[in-house]
Batch of 4 targets.
Target 1
Amino acid sequence: MKQSQLFSKTSKTSEADATSVNHDFLVRAGFVDQLMAGVYSYLPLGWRVLHKISDIVREEMDAIAGQEIFLPALHPKENWVKTGRWESMDVLFKIKSQSDSEYSLGPTHEEVIVPLAKKHINSYRDLPKAWYQIQTKFRDELRAKAGLLRGREFLMKDLYSFHATREDLQAYYEKSKQAYTNVFTRCGLDAIITEASGGSFTKEFSHEFQVATENGEDLIFTCACGFSQNKEIAKVGEGDRCPRCGKEKIKAVKSIEVGNIFDLGTKFSKDFDLKFTDEDGTSKEVIIGCYGIGISRLMGAIVEVHNDEAGMIWPEEVAPYEYHLVSLGDNDAVYKQSEEVYEQLTKSGKEVLWDDRREASNGEKLGDADLIGIPTRLVISPKTGDKIEVKKRAEKEIKIVSIKEL
RNA sequence: CGGGCUGUGGCGCAGUUGGUAGCGCGCGUCGUUCGGGACGACGAGGCCGUGGGUUCGAGUCCCGCCAGCCCGACCA
């Protein structure tokens, strides 16, 4: 991609309203644009990142037998009345059609997928099943905030698993923990598996995947041994002895919830009468688990964790491009050589953003490269001769290499 | 939803006791520059969030509404 052709431009100055790091950098670098509180457009660079994250999620969900589907965002009121959430869920967006029919915009999809499952699950032979989608969710948050971290419209992966027995759900639940950990690790994040409230559906705990960062809005109590509880259920406080290992002291850590997994039990099976015939011929309720990852929030969380004063520092697997080729100086030879390098890299399958803007100053280009935060910067200038300067965004060191060594 | 702050060219801001709007960045043209957002000249661009009120006259004063941000509450 030639930067001169890029749809979005960068900005030297922060927006007045940008108080969170992710909002500030993502807007300034042209990854996203805010339409209104909690609602963002994704521009080419941001959309690429979202795709990278989505693809990682797909690979890991497929690895635990997930099958991707795509459900509607527009839901009939009836299904939400049936589960009681038309009244009880305060973040539910409710809309009315011109003929006065009522609908909701999906904040989550149990109300859609369970009736769907009813048409495809009849026997124990049909179980287990795991279906997931990556979809826009709507939640009528009273206070959207912190850039991509709390939106009213956002991208989310939700997987639902259907089981014949509690044991089977438990086994799958544990597998999902590993899959989730893989997702976050690949996204450059260290997610802490944290016990949290199970909500109104189950007496069991749920688990949240929390990323420690100063700008997080959650508070968790953790121990080096792996113990971690959300403040909403924590029976320990900072400085207490860890109830699990009995040695270390508990730390209070601010964090961002990037994923959660729930044991829904039979709550929704009961609401929609989702039953299967077991081996012994008896009819039983299907046991359901639900597993979410906030894809767009994850993008914001990555920025919150990986940045410096100059801009973002994208982890390799989620970076919009692998290489940022920067041509310095208004010099024909430089641009000719740059074009060759750009073609060569692109042909060999590398993803390259080439800053080919001849009219832009060197400082502007280097500043943009830091702001955008592509992992590897390649510089060609009158100084580099027939070599190329290579610098990792996260490091200070500069290497001079020949084209062949790239 | 309670409390607070803020709405003025694309962005960041200034605008005095009320007298018909200005700066920086960005943008356009020309020229000079070229390794950390360079410089000069000329130029384009504003129903001052919105509705009402006070006044001879409102960006400025008063009231309502809308929007954005922050704190809190909320967040299956």
Target 2
Amino acid sequence: MTSTAHGVRARARIEVTAAIKEEARRQLAAEGATKLSLRAVARELGMASSALYRYFPSRDDLLTALITDAYDSLGEAAEAAHDAVADAGPAERWVAVCEAVRDWALGHPHEYTLIYGSPVPGYNAPRTTVPAASRVGLLLVGIVRDAHRGLGLAKPPLPAELRPEAERMAVELAPDLPPEVVTALVAAWAQLYGLVGFELFGQFNRIVEEREAFFRHAVAQLAHGVGLVYPQKGRAAKGAAS
Amino acid sequence: MTSTAHGVRARARIEVTAAIKEEARRQLAAEGATKLSLRAVARELGMASSALYRYFPSRDDLLTALITDAYDSLGEAAEAAHDAVADAGPAERWVAVCEAVRDWALGHPHEYTLIYGSPVPGYNAPRTTVPAASRVGLLLVGIVRDAHRGLGLAKPPLPAELRPEAERMAVELAPDLPPEVVTALVAAWAQLYGLVGFELFGQFNRIVEEREAFFRHAVAQLAHGVGLVYPQKGRAAKGAAS
DNA sequence: CTCGACACAAGAGCAGTGCTCACTTTCGCG
DNA sequence: CGCGAAAGTGAGCACTGCTCTTGTGTCGAG
């Protein structure tokens, strides 16, 4: 269909599309999602605003593209951080991934806001974004799985009323892990983004000062809650990421 | 100065101000913050859009007023839920407050988004909102304090590197509580909003089905992490708050 | 090599926004 | 009772997303 076989026309198209996304990302990073203006992008690119609609049917479609890219960028950063400590213990890897998420969020506040802040009202993320969005989650599941196969996991408590749901989630997310662990993992996943969001959105402002150390401790506790046993050696001080 | 003593003029002013906020809140609830339009509010109130600026110098100021109100509404809901179980154990009260936060968020999604979602970009919440914003936090601190004075608390772990910061936070937030507990409390506070936000913003969509039970369990674990010992009786099923 | 088709681009225009400003009306208070 | 300030008005500016009509540049088949 519109493969490279069609030649020059198609090449130009994907190049312009990329240029639009690039400029849009620039504006997003500079001013935030609400200030992102098609007309401004077109202006900066030296083209008529109407021409932009040949590439993105609407502003929301452009935003969707940026969202997918942001998820991928975050996922990549997390995976890179994980690979850098791939042979460390599960708890270390867990903390490394969490810190990567935090670092990425602090480095790309508006992109983070776009994907984990309030969804732009009146806008519903299409299913397209799901795979890109799952990368960090999969990473965490992988770490826990390794621990499960290796040193083993502590089983978090699970009330009886929640067991059916826990088993359902386990089947869907990680059939090889105990339902208790999967449940705790999902909760920890959400809680991680609570920690990051509160710091990013200023809720910690006159409250938490030593942000990095606080975060590191909190996510270590999260790991503990999932069943990963956190080694109590005083290792946290050295080798800061960022 | 502009007290009620000044009579009719001032009375009319606060009435119109209230009407504007009311209509604005209506639009906020219906369409979200970005769709809230001064002109639409004025239109609905049958006045010229420019007249609105006699009451709110800018759109942001109107939003700020709504934000403060939202914080107060949330705080009130949480306090009411707490008072309803005031003589229960600390863990029950903790869970009740958390559920109240969740219920309020699900019932007022756009208002919740306004205060705990991404702050409207380019907009910085003025210090005015701080007291209203603290109400839920104070409630949680109070519960933990009661437990501390009563049955006692388990001391959460605290790495040595974080102790100075923990002591600083304790001095500022709750000097009568152990620093370990205060630290865990701040983390739990952020994590609570991670749980609520993920559910509200659809991140749990094809993942968690039994939202209420899952949430209840998660926040109970949070309480545990703070040092509140969660009674293992099977009490969770009956007497739902909502 | 020519010519038609079609992707691409441009510009005007519509309806909407926040906000300002000069102006008129109204009404409470000295 | 009359003055002055507060309240309200409407036009207007610069901006937005988006549509529609009107060109153009270019590719590929005849």
Target 3
Amino acid sequence: MTLHDVAKLAGVAPITASRALNTPQQVSAEVLRKVSEAVTRTGYVPNRLAGGLASTRSRLVAAVVPTIAGPVFLETVQSLTEALAERGYQLMLGQAGYAGGREDALLEAIIGRRPDGIVLTGILHSAEGRRRLLASGIPVVETWDLTPTPIDMLVGFSHVEVGRAVARHLHAKGRRRLAVVAGDDERAGRRTDAFCAAATALGLRRPRVVTVPAPTTLKSGRDALATLVREAGETDAVFCSSDLLALGVLTEARVQGWAVPQRLAVIGFGDLEFAADLDPALSSVRIQGGDIGRQAARFIVDRVEGREVAEKVVDIGFSIVERQSA
Amino acid sequence: MTLHDVAKLAGVAPITASRALNTPQQVSAEVLRKVSEAVTRTGYVPNRLAGGLASTRSRLVAAVVPTIAGPVFLETVQSLTEALAERGYQLMLGQAGYAGGREDALLEAIIGRRPDGIVLTGILHSAEGRRRLLASGIPVVETWDLTPTPIDMLVGFSHVEVGRAVARHLHAKGRRRLAVVAGDDERAGRRTDAFCAAATALGLRRPRVVTVPAPTTLKSGRDALATLVREAGETDAVFCSSDLLALGVLTEARVQGWAVPQRLAVIGFGDLEFAADLDPALSSVRIQGGDIGRQAARFIVDRVEGREVAEKVVDIGFSIVERQSA
DNA sequence: GTGAAAGCGCTAACAA
DNA sequence: TTGTTAGCGCTTTCAC
């Protein structure tokens, strides 16, 4: 089944059938009717490979995440999918892995499909990767971070500000002996560093830092708190680099008999759906992941459709959601 | 940058350059060297749209999930991605939504890209969708279920057996007043029905069933248990249709002062990573989601590469992982 | 509003 | 082992 067959059935030229499908307003009502009928009768599905090749518009957008198992980006990916689907674009999802070895191969696989845009989520890209991306000429949106040297467009927030804000928040709540439990990815590292710097600037002792492997798990959180209890009994507040980690900390705190928030304040990161419904309800840093996805979609579609993107960098901000745990 | 340019630079015909890239063993060492050099010098990335159009092999596999926010399929999707990547295929992920309205549009978008295979995960497809899939001639793998009438290939397990097995398990543990908290999707419904049937067959009273909207959340689990406590104080065991739901039940049970497992046994479904590390550790039904993904990849690659698939249906089974909560 | 011709970048089939 | 020719299915351009 090709456009040719459909056109023949409708008694028009292929190009006319093409117009009936893609730009119906350019075609007479009569032709539209005949073509639509031929399409439904034959069950014709346009070959987007051919279309993409001819038009250099694939209507495909690629997104790269470290792993889809990381719940932090789910909201972003989901809203991105939806926002793109509404505008007739399809999302292709690639997993780079936190390690980064696969990153270049993945990038090549992606660029080879000539997507109309690429959304990078939460990964640190190699210099080689940057170069390829730039050379490809494909619109790129980096997300979940604010870098001084974006490849192209950017929608994110400042991890440094998050770290600072959380330290200040805990300080304001009267906490004096802070700790951090963080996954060993680069962004979490920046939050941690800023958190520690802010804490010492406030006159607090330097926070204990427990680093765990990314992706973070509940178990890592439990183990980390157990460590803190053993090594540094005086901790009275923990900032976790993910809500899952925080759930682990909460769990272990209960097991160890450390009352939250009385004995220990806990604050997570990501504000996953379950955070509000835990007992005690988990305080967390909320990132509007959905907004990030929607803005990324807008960026790319605007660019593809020839609209000028005035401001290529958007700071989406964050907020600290205060609940029982801190 | 096209293959033409690379070929010219290497001093060979385009088809020779193509062979150097795709089937290097068909080409002299000398040619291979020259072409490789030209590729690295130019940063050439093959256009897979063109390649796919010419060869009718896109090296793209599409997977459809209800939503990537549902953690149940993550393991499957992840192993699928990896198994495919190893063999040089790329995964395209589509979200159908639990509602199902978008399903046909999604299918069209997918078929239009002429993927080498389609993996269907946890969705119920319309008759229209089935027809299109069949008509497209693309290899299809349905997963996470066993249906008597598969579209093509199938790797899953019996939801009915799961329901039965869990009922028997709880009965064997001495539980007599069972309940179910389940998301309102079709598969969970089948587990629930089988669970109830098995319970009554064992001489137990008909289990209470609390249905919650899919996708399931921790909050739904809490609310459901609160309902059970209010309406049916005599419940002594709950089978939840997801681990998140079970976490909610566990949480609410603690709040309500129902000791787990003494007063209430709780068993989840999916055996997510966190299940083992909760307190109390959550018993759950384990599905080898990773195996499902790997088998699906094998199915598709075998088919694409012309190997005959002898047994088109694989029952991957399940197991009940016994931990503290039940 | 409709169509003819040409070509997007690549590979299958055949030939040398 | 290498090359020539033709064409995958569609859309662009230009003409009517």
Target 4
Amino acid sequence: MHPLIQHIQKVTSTPGIEGDMILSFFETKVFKKKDILLEENKRCLLYFFVVKGCLRLYFTDYNGVEQTLQFALENWWMTDINAFRAGQKSGYTIQALEATEVLTITAPNYELMLAKFPIIENYFRLVYERAYAASLLRVRMISRMPKDEFYDLFQSKYPEFIQRIPQKVLASFLGFTPEYLSELRKKKVKKKTNS
Amino acid sequence: MHPLIQHIQKVTSTPGIEGDMILSFFETKVFKKKDILLEENKRCLLYFFVVKGCLRLYFTDYNGVEQTLQFALENWWMTDINAFRAGQKSGYTIQALEATEVLTITAPNYELMLAKFPIIENYFRLVYERAYAASLLRVRMISRMPKDEFYDLFQSKYPEFIQRIPQKVLASFLGFTPEYLSELRKKKVKKKTNS
DNA sequence: CGGTCTCTTGACGGAGTTCAAAGCTAGTGG
DNA sequence: CCACTAGCTTTGAACTCCGTCAAGAGACCG
């Protein structure tokens, strides 16, 4: 069974969903490492579901530095949701961090699908509930927690990310410079060998 | 017509919703300024819809300082959504910043209502979509933007807040100390009188 | 009024940035 | 399969934003 259908069944606790009708709204696409899926200031036409691989969403800040706001591993959704719904220009760029397979859906199809299948409406309500809660938690982590503690926390909570993601990108996600991340890592290694 | 019903109609673009059935799931409560609606580490049993007034959601950080993560004005929903759904202890405190009237709903009633009225499922999906996008934007604002610029931006985007909210709380939302906020305000006044 | 809370001011220190330059890796083409 | 290069990562030094502390001035409420 397709990973998306599995995910819908799991999230909504509803077994036996007939997947073919739902999958017919989507198209499969494959991207190479570093490919751009959505570009800042271009119209946002697609919503992505990660089947295999890893994406990141970032923007370019006031002095030209890329700031990563989100990652999407398997079974995550990603787009600039505001721009997607309004069919407007994206405020973010989405890039593949690895070779990545996604399902894509257009805004009209997204609306159609939601209107036609109550279970999908339910599914997305739950997906957003979680995403929202996760985003709040993110703000909580960032806000005034010493950065080295934040790094520790992130490391212990998402060890998979540390391995899959370049330091530079990780630093921009955690909210500091690559140089400082490097310094932190050195400190941590020292501590470990001491204890 | 009740503000909640108006809001549902507006968000879902569906006029003529019969409100009484929906409102029967809720209870109205009134709070005074500084009253606590939900307390950190107590079970989170209610979801709040602000009819009139203003709430804030905060937690107490690792050295005992209150960090504000969200405000809720008229027509906003607020609770610790994770704790609410799981019926567990809240990670946040919710407090009234003004005399505030809210609608409250329990978790069982929330589930019932969603299951019974597809339009409500649709409504909450849209509400979370927005809340999620707003939360992302928040992270975007915080991340490595110089704090004085962040203050400017917030001021120009939400002037109503600046007036309704105590400085101390505003500082904790913006991610810096009351002392530094005070310093910023002084600078701004100077600039204005110069120009 | 008095007492408690909030806001302001200023001095000081340190966490984290910036800049520059030197290793390192991984991807590319021959 | 190796050599070369562009981009990552590390290091170190200088600097600065912003937090901490302490103390005074206002504001609000009973």
